[in-house]
Every structure is written in C-alpha cells, then in structure tokens.
Specification:
Blueprint lengths: L9 H13 L6 E2 L9 E2 L23 E8 L4 E2 L6 E7 L3 E5 H11 L4 H6 L2 H9 L1 H4 L1 H11 L10 E3 L25
Parallel strand pairs: 1-4, 6-7
Antiparallel strand pairs: 2-3, 3-5
Helix pairs in contact: 2-6
Length: 186
Amino acid sequence: MPIVRLPHLLTPTLLVLVLMLLVPTSSDETDCNTLRMGQFICPNPSLRQIDPKTQQLRGCTRENKARVWCIAAEGIICSETKNNSFTRELPCKWTNGYHFDTALLLSVFLGMFGADRFYLGYPALGLLKFCTLGFMFLGQLVDVILIATQVVGPADGSAYIIPYYGPVITVVRSDNWTYRLPQDNW
C-alpha cells in the first residue's frame, strides 16, 4: 500500500480544524441573569434556603434583598458557573425578631395596658395606653385591627416573623404610572 503524503502546509490546517471541532466553544453558554420565566426555578428546591428562625430567605438584608441559588432549565449552561446553577437576587422581608402572633396576642389580651406597643418598640404609645386603660378600650380595639391587618409593625422598620406560607399581607399600591385594565362590567 502506497503512503500518501500531504503537502507541508495542509497538515497544520487539518490539525487546527480537528481541534476546533473537538473543543467546545463558549457560544453554548448563556448569561443566566437574562433568562425568562419558565427557563429557571428560583430558589433551588433541593437546597434549604429558608431560614427556620426568620421564615425568610437566608441572607436577607435591610434592603429586603437576598442572593439565592437557582437552577436553569435542562440544556442551559450559565456563563458564570459553567453549569446549570446560578445566583439571583430575590425580594424578601427583613426581620428583627418580632413575631406576628406574639404581637397580636399581646394586643388582644394585654392591649389595655399597652403591652403590644411596648413589645413593638413604641414605649410612648404603650405608656399612654397604660395610663388611659387602652383609651377606654377603644384604642385597644383599634390596635387589634391595625396589628391584625399588619398596618402597624415593629418600630425599627423590620417585618414580622410569619411562617413562609403564612398569613402575610402584601399591600399593592398604585401611582401615576399604574395602568388599570377596564373590566367587562364597568
């Protein structure tokens, strides 16, 4: 069998072409922060990212943001980690140790003495309620409603500790940039 010799310049060119086909390119990688809904799941359900003490995402800051691990859909490779996991900043509620159920129970049973306001960090209002017997029990009733609807919260601006899937009220506000779709019965 005769030996076939390739021209001298053709051998390095073939070697480069074969290497280019074998080495994966970075065009398969995606910036996972630009993924659309349905292309990822956040937070990663296999990791325990809910803090049992605060019932919020671990690492929640005063700015109400937490960085959590997420998973991209199958076949998507993230450019940051070179696999299908990545981190994303999610909203959370920063807590500082005030329990919703404790505040509500104090308001119902000891609200006439201002115990709920002392607990939440409002000593002046607590003393005023104590001296006036809860504004003759009318202030106690108002405070029960305000705490139950989560209008009144802790004085330091933190959120109540409520179970993650518990009775959390989220207020939806509108401004000049809010667009309301008309209903059929309007």
